[in-house]
User: What shape does this take?
Amino acid sequence: ERLYSLRMRAAQGGAHEEGGLHISGGEKLGVEEEIETLVGRLLDKALHHSRGTADFINLVIERVDASNCSVLSPLTVSTYKVSDYRAGRQKAVTQLRELSVSETAIMNAFNILSSAQNIRGAILLDSQSGERLDTRGDRGVRVSRMDWDQEQYASWIRRHPQFDSPRIAEALALATKVVHAQGTVAELCWSDDPDYVTGYVASMTKGYCRITHLKEEGDLSGGRVFFVSPGTSISGYVEYLERSLVWIG
Ligand code: PML
Assistant: This one.
């Protein structure tokens, strides 16, 4: 079977490289017969987003080598209900401390995410020094080539009906791939969507821990930080995130 990777990104006010605002992105994997449906879903996501309507959409469809893939079980999901973003951020800080992320790295991550309004991909930080490790500027590192196995997804949703949303499915697939990368200590994420305030801390030992408020309603900030252990080869790490093929199921 011919397997394809589909990658979408949408911007407003011109192509992102020319100063446009990043609106949304999406990743899918599928065989030839599924491409049309998947393109439809990605376009729908690009065109109907609360950050605005896209006037630039970039869609890349690439054939990938299906023989070289791994299958990962989705991380265990838990949800912490907090009353506001201050309590939520405190919860995230506690979790990151428990994962041995340094105070400096935690502080840098919150500073980056709360001022980021236009980052497409993830920012890599050394989990101890807190130093930024990637050299991608506003583009960040784009985790790609992962998707749910559709049958496994249907069965997962039957067991976890409370998490039935494309947004959660996509974030969980991404976090599962990221946490399994050699060198990842944890991921911190909240959406740049002003209407969506739930975020998460993901790690191998604690799984995917959703926190119901990590920012205020209406806030355009958001993005992803990956905390990486000191001494990790960044080129190998980025290569895995961008190019290795991962099925979630
Ligand atoms: C995003 O869609 O921009 C990230 C969403 C992260 C949280 C998803 C969830 O509710 O678990």
Notes: The longest strand covers residues 21-31. The mean pLDDT is 94. The pocket of pimelic acid is lined by residues 167-168, 171, 189, 191, 193, 198-200, 210 (CB under 6 Å).
